[in-house]
Structure formats: structure tokens, C-alpha cells
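Protocol step 4 of 5: obtain the predicted structure for the target chain.
Materials: sequence only (see below). No template structures provided, no constraints applied. The aim of this step is simply to have a reference model before the mutagenesis design in step 5. Sequence pasted as it appears in the construct record:
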Amino acid sequence: MHAHIIYNYLKPNGVGISIGGVQTYITNLIPLLKKSGYSITIYQVSDLDFHQEFADYDIYGLKTDERKQTAAVLSAFAFQHINPTTDLLIYGTDFLIHKKSPCRSIAIQHGISWDIPFDNCSKLRYLKHYLGKCKDAWKTIQRVNKVDQLVCVDYNFVNWHRATSPYSKTRHIVIPNFSAIPAFQPQKNNKDIKIIFARRLFAYRGTRLFADVAERILTEYKNVCVTIAGTGPDEDYMHQKLDKFCNVEFTTYESKDSLRIHEDKNIAVVPTLGSEGTSLSLLEAMASGCAVVCTNVGGMTNIVLDGYNGLLVNPEKEDLYQALRNLIEDIATRTVLQANAYMTVSKAFSLEKWQRRWLTLLQRQ
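Step 4 output (C-alpha cells):
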């Protein structure tokens, strides 16, 4: 049996794994495929054609100058290597579904991606944006109808899909994202407040929302330290906003070190504006015993019960500011949220539970 995975797993030059949540997802999925008896090949677009052999998988890089044709190019190449009776095709994201596979197929749906809000604009521009979102939604419905099973990381997508496509033949299987779990809840020093923003630095991840609020918090509270952990196009914006404060640290980390970078932090902020499933960053922060503040976006509402294991806020500056202010000043609430966050992830979103769910799916014929 052979599992064929379509996703841009390595960097475009074929050297090193790309940084991202889907790459982390696939890295954790590969051992489960092997345990289920599959050999593995990955197909991706690249700067040059290549074929590399690794201990756990083979990978083909295919050069294409037309990015819009990525799904078609990768599917056509993968289909040439598929045994229809024994093989499995996995799309790393539903965006890469092209047409019906000759073998059993699974696509991973990582959350609705077209819900990012846009700024105030004219009626004409609003209509253009609205029609664009309708087009994205329609394309998604058409794509997911071409696979046998759709693994969804949240119920937000499932409920939307049921409402818009009630006669879909696609079978939804909800397997939320996961985190490794420390053996014991990390204990926090709750005297000095350490806040962390550990995300890729893109505007839709809430970089500007957080930077503006952090500027206000740091001005008012001298016992607060802020860590920005990540890289991306909004890095300069965050430096411009926060470099004037001596108690702000910019750093980077590898995904395997996520628990370590959170372990001494009191509060984690995940202020996403849109395009979010069951956020790995949120789950890792909760597993590390942080009190979390996140926006009520996408699959994060499947994780956090407001006031029990975290705080849910609208993706707006004043709401985020008030939530952080309350946690900074109220040590009792902060302590309860930290404990409940750790317990929630250890019981419902552990790596072990995710592995069991995937093994059940892979071994089901």
C-alpha cells in the first residue's frame, strides 16, 4: 500500500521543511501512515524538478511557472503513480483538490479561509469583496465534493458546509488539531506578567491589532513583559510600534520548541482576524498552562469557553485591551484559566487523542 500526499512540504529549493501549521500536521501524520502499513510519497511544486529519498518518505518537486495550475500539475503527476485498488491519496489542504482520484482520497480542511474582514470602503468595493468571498465559498463546495472523506479540524466549517450544501456527498470527519502535553501543569510566577504572541507575523494573524493594544498595555503597566515569537511581513510594523519599550523581546523558535517558549509565560494572545481552524498556537499555549485571550474566530470557538479556560473577544482593540487588563490585574481569574486551559487540552486536544483518531480513519477501508 502506498500513501500519496499532495502539499508543498519542503522549501521551494527542496532543502529543509517549510515552516507552517500544515507542515507540522503532515510531519505528525507520516508516522501514523507508516504504522498503518503505507509507504509514502509527497508531491509539491518547487523552483526546480527534483526527486529526493528520505528515511520515511520520497518527495517529488515539480517546477511550474503557473501557480494557478499547481493543483492540476501535482494531481496529474501523482495519478500516474497510483494503484487504484490499494493506494491512498491525501490532499494536505482542500485548495489542492483538482479532480476525482482513481483511489481512496482524503482531504484535510484547515478552516474557512475567506472570513478575513476588510476595512471600510465604498459600496462598489464592498460588493466586489462580497462577490469574491462568494466565489471562494462556491469553489470550496465544488472541490470538496471530489474527495471521499474530508477531515475537518473544526466544526465551524462543518456547520457552514451543511448550511450551504445540504446534499453534499462528502463525508465530514472532525479531527481537531492537537498539542503535546507536559506531564504536569507548568507552574507560573504570577508576580511579573509575561505576555506572548507566538504566531507568524501576518496582518490577518492579528499582528497590528496586538501591537496597538500591547503599546497601550506596556505604557500603563511597568511589570508587564511582552515576547513576540515569529517572523513574517509585519515584523517591521511590530518593531516600529514596540522597540521603544525595554521590556519587549523579539525571538523565533521551531515548532518542536513551542511548549518550551510558552512555559514561563503567564498570558498568551491569539488575536486572529480570520482564516483560523483549531489553532495549533492556541492549543500549545493552553497546554503550557497559559491564560489565553483569543478572538472569537473560526475553530477557536470550538476550544475556548469564555471565562472557563480562556477569554474570547471580538477582534477589536478595545475588547482585547480590556481582556488583557482584566487578566493582568486579576490573579485569581488568571490562575483558574491557566489550570482549566491545561486540563482542556490534556483531555480533549492531546497529540495522543489526535493520533488515535487518525489511525482509526486510516485503518478503516
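Step 4 remarks: The longest strand covers residues 39-46. The chain is about 35% helix and 20% strand.
Proceed to step 5.
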